[in-house]
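Quick question, first post here. What does this chain look like in 3D?
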Amino acid sequence: MEKMAAPIQSTIVDGVLKIALEIVEPSLKECSSAERREIEELMRNCALKEASLTSRLADISKLSDAELRGNVRKLLSEDDYRKISEYVDQETFTMDITSTAATFQRGNRKFLEPIQLSSIEAITAATIYQIASIFIESVFLVLGAIGIKVSYDEALMRKIIEEILPVVQQPAFRRIIDEFVETWAAGNAWGKAKAIFNLLKDTYSFGIFWKVVKIAFSEMSWMERIKNIALVATMIVAALATDGIALIAKIALSVNDAYNLAKKIINMIRLKALASEFNK
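> Answer (accepted):
Ran it through. Tokens below.
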């Protein structure tokens, strides 16, 4: 079986690299030949690691949370595990909901003007902001699983939200988020992690995954930004080619610690209940 697995794994890696290189090609145009070789080698090593990890994670979804954590932990390097553990639960903003209003904070400061929940239109507006926050934090959770930490200030966060709001308002996008909330609420660590993977997969065609990533990387140095874009492209393409097994497993290591994201899921359920009251 091992002799058969090697050619299959090599074929997957070659296919992943071909597609990932097409994604990052615009960013590589300004690279020297040496820099391009360095980045392509980084991408190949990343694809090989993902293919190898995927092949060693058979039946991982059937394990308990504790068993899953233990098994995946043993397959990762100390550095990879440390990054996943440290880079979880970066927050966009906090929304607090009462029966009459939604308020928005970032740290100890007001982030957005409060929304009085006195109409279905107001509830919808609050819901749209919460959806934007959920999507951004899901992307950042995936970046953390990949091993990329994003530091962002308030201005950068406002820029990301402004960029994606027109997309997250679309009915098709909102339906995907509704499915994500339902799946998350019913899942264990693997179920929650798979819900995040499916969210990114199902919304990939909307184009906002890369909008979030590129704005989040905009304050990095030129070479760091290109390398991280290359890593993200490789990991995402590898995940899409292999049912996301390795990426889901890494997200599952930290997903139960994503307390801020979990609170936003609860907010979505509460907003939906408030909307149902208005629709009666």
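Strands lie at 94-97, 101-106, 109-116.
The mean pLDDT is 88.
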